[in-house]
Amino acid sequence: MSYSPLFLSLKIATIATIIVFLLGVLSARIISRRIFPGKSIVESVLLLPLVLPPTVVGFGLLYLFGVNGPIGHWLLLLFDYKVVFTWVAAVIAAIVVSFPLMYQSASAAFQNYDPNVENAALTMGASKFKVFFTISLPLAWPGLLAGLVLTFARALGEFGATLMIAGNIPGVTSTIPLAIYSAVEAGRMEQAYTWVIVIIALGFSSVLWLNWWTKRNVMSFKQNS
Amino acid sequence: MLKRLTPWFFVLLLLVSCSNEQEKEQTLTISAAASLTDAIEEITDIYEQSHNLSITLNIAGSGRLAQQIEQGAPADVFLSANQKWMDEMENKTVIDPSTRINFVTNRLVVISKKGTDPLPSIQSITQLEKNEQIALGQPGSVPAGTYTKQGLESIHLWDDLEEKMVFGNDVRQVLAYVESGNVTYGFVYGSDAASSEKVSIVSELEDDSHDAIVYPAAVVKASDHPDSARDFVDFLRSEEAQNIFSAYGFKPVEEREG
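Predict the joint structure of the above. Result:
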């Protein structure tokens, strides 16, 4: 049995999580506290991948990134690069399906403290960047971290959209969920059991760690203040 | 509180009653290998009309179907694309061996997008460009993939092509990959190639490079309607059904005496 699904899963989920974290925090900070016409429509679109079946997300991505699709066609033409059936496609699928979780958590986190603390700093002459990194980010951090862990767990478990856009290529796109699927299809039950245990362990430990971290830090933060 | 829930209760009742509507007449569930899709749809249509029963088709890769049936999924007839999965079902006494027959055969071809020139030889399939890939069925579970692996190994191309491979979960997915242009070549059955107007056959794997592609059928032991199921299995070998199969690119089984 090859270990490649484990490393692939970790690689794809880690890269997707970093990108989703940056995108999610940025978009939540920009959108969540602002009031503008069509805001709820924008937010609904951002959260859409959460409620759509993965097959729909996969279909959409396949349409966009396929060699004849609007994005895939140009990538091929301009950079001679085909996205579908590569590990990059698996990262894209993981990004799209896990983004709503990060956005949702970050959005709640930025609304969870009094914006006047930021305004106070701004009036005292702090730059926007300084305010963001020394006030907004630390105050929102517990919520952001929760989003980060959920994003990682969701990216790790991504299956449907990945299968459609990245295919099932051992050593390239065959992550743990896909390896489980192939093993069950082929009747290799021991292999399926092993990967099921591995992915439960990974998912369980990330959520457990989050709970432990939240209790330790948020509680002490509240006690101190 | 209860008053507010009352209308929802009726909605629920309505939904539940809807789903029971169809179970009036006898229903046969046929679990058929994905490569049989078009032909079996036509055959079951004809059979339904002449026999006053309804047929539910469950189409997937043979390996998946075998897993489903073994785990107790409802099925009356199992149509596999290879002997391996049928043997497995027979060994696990999931099917009734006395009903087992072979009903059609097939061949393996290499397809590419419509209008592609035929390959000068199967060996030239190795000359792929950076972005080009080839698709085949997952060899562990999809019979078309198993045959393809055998064929490619016997002509010593498997190792050269391995890093270019994308595995489909059934043979129809391989066809779809090629149709969409997302992969350059695909290994499918002659019947699949014939069913699509978007692909051309560019080469083929010699019949003697892999096990004979013979489709077996059998009645599932747990069937509620074993007699109807058996009758359907027999119907697959009738002239009427065989004509439909050959129209879709399948070949008849050559009976070997003795």
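Chain A has ten helices and no strands.
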